[in-house]
Amino acid sequence: LKTLSIRSKLKNYVVTIHKDTETISTQGPDSRLIYIVDSRVWKLHRNDLLKNVRNANIIFLDASEGIKSLATVQELYKDLLIYEIQRATQIVVIGGGVIQDVSGFVASTIYRGIDWTFIPTTLLAQVDSCIGGKSSLNFMGYKNLLGTFFPPSKIDIYPEFLTTLHIEDFYSGLGEIVKLHIVAGKEKYSFLKSEVSNFLLHHEHSVFQVICSSLETKKKFIEEDEFDVGNRRFLNYGHCFGHAIEASSEFRIPHGQAVIIGMLLANLVSLKRNVLSRSVYDDLIALLFSCLLSKPKKEELATKLIINGLINDKKRSGSKLALILLKDNFEMELIQDMEEMEVHFALKELQKLLDL
Ligand SMILES: NC(=O)c1ccc[n+]([C@@H]2O[C@H](COP(=O)([O-])OP(=O)(O)OC[C@H]3O[C@@H](n4cnc5c(N)ncnc54)[C@H](O)[C@@H]3O)[C@@H](O)[C@H]2O)c1
Ligand SMILES: [Zn+2]
User: 251 CA to middle of ligand 2, Å?
Assistant: First the structure.
């Protein structure tokens, strides 16, 4: 068991990482609880981790990007009213990033915000999205256009949930882990390099260590820049190209894996600009390749599609392209002057590296 306290201007909150397999316990009989649970997680874990939740008021949701909508939010408000929600009711949310985003939005708006607990069940949610307080909905085809900052009061992590994840979802979370450990600097990066093979073998101790280490890293960034106007933006390393690749693959490539490809491309730009030395670059490639589940298809790296994606990047200001660059000594920089030629170069080089 390990706890981590997060300082927030909205409210401080605590993350607990539970080491042993424990069943999730409901609170005392007089506290009002309503659960919002990922249906797949319920099917897989109703007889073990979620055994004690069986008689509770539960609202089920099927996780998919499509449910991050105002329509789902309205349905949830209705369901909560049916369960006679009151200001003092606690909402307990159990699922991955999708369930978190939509339920967090509901928790932050009903009665102008009520107490909620989050139990993340995917790797991405356990190592990354569970802290930081963001909720997001998609609107009119724009991903994460609507949202609020409203952290849960309590986050409980049970690594045991990860044993039932699809391999694609496991590797998606891994992409964010790698990103966090690069952005955090040399020491964290070395730690991950030494841990990654055990982590990929699901060694319990290693999984626990890596979850803790990832959250410690993210904690540092969100406490320094809670509302994402300064250094927290560096957590978007790999995401400029990454979002473009998600789009060019029509979302076939999972988010975290697109981020890995995004980091490979960003590093190629750094290398070409002579801000990243060849030796560090090579070292990074080895780690990034070991965390790539499968190669993208050649057509998913088409220059036109990728440039279109980069043009839509929220971080872009000005007429050229934006990119978060890694430099020597693990320093980060947001540049606004990437040329299309540099994108061409990076995509060509990556195709060679991947033997496409
Ligand atoms: N709010 C934030 O700060 C933040 C940060 C990053 C990402 N996100 C959002 O998170 C979403 C992605 O979340 P995700 O990667 O957690 O995916 P997800 O919530 O879509 O879950 C992926 C799949 O795994 C299933 N699943 C969940 N837990 C499982 C378990 N323990 N065993 C087996 N299957 C399980 C789900 O039913 C789903 O099919 C995106 O919409 C992204 O925008 C939010
Ligand atoms: Zn991400």
Answer: 13
User: pTM value?
Assistant: 0.95
Ligand 1 neighbourhood includes 268 CB (under 6 angstroms) = no
160 in contact with ligand 1, CB cutoff 6 A: no
User: What pLDDT band is residue 44 in, cutting at 50, 70 and 90?
Assistant: very high
What per-residue confidence (pLDDT) applies to 30?
52
Indicate which ligand has the atom closest to the C-alpha of 169. 1
Q: Taking residues 173-199, report their average pLDDT.
A: 98
Angle, helices 278-290 vs 167-183, to 10°: value is: 160
Query: What are the start-end ranges of the H helices in the chain?
Result: 39-45, 70-82, 97-109, 123-124, 167-183, 186-200, 204-224, 239-248, 255-272, 278-290, 303-311, 340-354
User: Residue 133 CA: which ligand 1 atom is closest?
Assistant: 3
- Tell me if 38 CB under 6 Å of ligand 1: yes
Distance CA 81, CA 313 (A): 38
